[in-house]
Amino acid sequence: MKLSLAIVALALAIPGANYAQDSTAVSTGTYPNTFSSGSANVSPFTNQSKRFNDWSISVGAGVPLLQSADLTSIKNGNGKNLFGYSAYVSIDKAITHAFGINLQYDRGETRQGWFNTKDAAPDATAVGARTQYDAISILGDINFSNLLRRVDNHSTYRWALHGYAGVGTIAYRAYQKDSKGQRLMTEVKPFKLGSMFMQAGAGLKFKVNRRIDLEGRLMYVVTGDDEFDGGGDAYSAINKRSEQVSDNFFNATLGLSIKLGKHESHLMWHDPLQEIYYKLDVLANKNQDIEVCKKGDADNDGVCDDWDRQLDTPAGARVDGAGVALDTDLDGVIDLYDKCVTVPGPVENNGCPTTNTGPVIETETKLEGIEFDLNSDRILPSNTPILNNAVNYINSSNGSYSVIGATDTRGTDAYNQKLSQRRANNVKNYLIKNGVQNGKLNAVGKGEKDLKYPECEPATKCPEWKNRANRRVYFEAK
Question: Is 118 exposed, middle or buried (0-12, 13-18, 19+ CB in 10 A)?
């Protein structure tokens, strides 16, 4: 029976795993306001736009204590304190930063009564019992720390309080032992009406690193069955002593969660209010007034419609203070669509000169468009045309080049150094994959020490488009 339960649990888990998807940084086509939290591609928590890992696997072990029953685990006149054992494994899916769903399998044994059933009965009146159980349940997971987090947004976010509640099916075998020996009293099969149960409780999580969380849980399990404690049927000599109709137990466990996916952060550890509160606090400390757009911001370019001179700015285009899309080389092609940002060229040639001079990649300005989302090393689809031009140029030249990665000023120096190196490596690998010789390229990460806009230290001093420009990769000829 227990083996079949494990097979059923695996069968239930496989369909959910087939739909598992890493959160992927996908541009929603909108360019957010300066005061929106997160990166320049801020988007709601939807299946079409995610930037976080949202799947994990949890395992743990602990001690179940049968207390709300005729035979109990903790001494209350019945004899010794008896401790059982339990273990669980679950597949966890985060729906939002504050709510998730877990498919959980539990297995354990409660011990209750006057003595441990492994020992001999001390006298003719003493009764001991043990119950071996297997359970499968669906649990709702509420992250109270994210749900209620409103003020203290400057502390390191390493602890989180979670609440769990759900229903499932439980199968068990209850044994009773007295001076006459041990015998099976009750056996309940899974997936029947009488095998339904409920459990609810709380857990305190500690974030060890981006991959592992530790968690202590205390769950209360309602079996809905008066025979779970091994006392026999409801009208037996043991169970008729009280009006108890459900044998319930506490289950205290310690476990860990392994977060799956390629992103730096898990959705349940994302605090969407932290960054925006920080920015508002900075402005308040500087006694600056926050201007509210009375007429809104129709094109989401960060400039209120009250003084926006271009109300239909294309999504993703950087603008000046009047809301007009930037055109650095004044050739009539805005920087968003200009393949040669600093060299004038006709519209029909994507803003590049028609003379066959090849792309100018010896300087940083050629790779103006190779920018990255916050906390991401993923090459955006909008960058691939520029990188493909770079492939052709490098292959036609005799020189070699350094691929240099950089970040903005958010995060620690050590983290930014690693992130910039990953960005440079990804661009280098893309070029090699598309035909560039490995010996012509060298990837270098400079972290936050190579800002395009040095005035963005800290990042809160600048609008988001400047911070995004600092998160870049460019080439230098050796």
Answer: exposed
Helix (H) or strand (E) segment spanning residue 113 = strand 99-113
Spatial separation of the C-alpha atoms in residues 296 and 281, rounded to whole Å? 23
Task: Count the neighbouring beta carbons within 10 Å of the beta carbon of residue 430.
Answer: 18
Helix axes 384-396, 413-433, angle to 10 degrees: 60
Main-chain dihedrals φ then ψ at residue 269, nearest 5 degrees: -100, 5
Give the pLDDT confidence of 425-437 residue by residue, as tens digits: 999 899 899 888 8
pLDDT in tens, 129-147: 999 999 999 999 999 988 8
Contact call for residues 406 and 421 (beta carbons, < 8 A):
no
Residue of 275 and 179 predicted with greater confidence? 179
Strand bridging mode 401-405 / 441-445 = parallel
Give mean pLDDT, residues 348-361: 57
Contact assessment for residue 256 and residue 214, using Cβ atoms and an 8 Å cutoff: yes
**Residue tagged 């929106």 (tokens):** 36
Query: Residue 178: what are its φ and ψ, rounded to 5°?
Result: -140, -160
Could you tell me how far CA 415 lies from the centroid of its own chain? 18
Give the span between the Cα atoms of 475 and 430, in whole angstroms. 14
Do the bridges between strand 99-113 and strand 85-94 make them parallel or antiparallel, or are there none, so unpaired?
A: antiparallel
What span, in angstroms and rounded, lies between the C-alpha atoms of 250 and 259?
27
Residues 366/403, Cβ–Cβ less than 8 Å? no
Residues of the chain with CATH 2.40.160.20: 2-269
CATH homologous superfamily, domain 358-477: OmpA-like domain (3.30.1330.60)
Residue 171 above 60 pLDDT?
yes
Q: Which two tokens stand for residue 117?
A: 């059933």
Burial of 262 per CB tally in 10 Å (0-12, 13-18, 19+): exposed
pTM attached to this predicted model:
0.52
Give ranges for CATH 3.30.1330.60 in the chain: 358-477
pLDDT in tens, 226-282: 899 998 887 788 876 666 788 999 999 999 999 999 888 888 888 765 555 545 454
* Of 57, 134, 2, 85, residue with least CA distance to 251: 85
Which amino acid makes up residue 436? V
- Topology of the domain covering 2-269: Porin (2.40.160)
CB 462 within 8 A of CB 453: yes
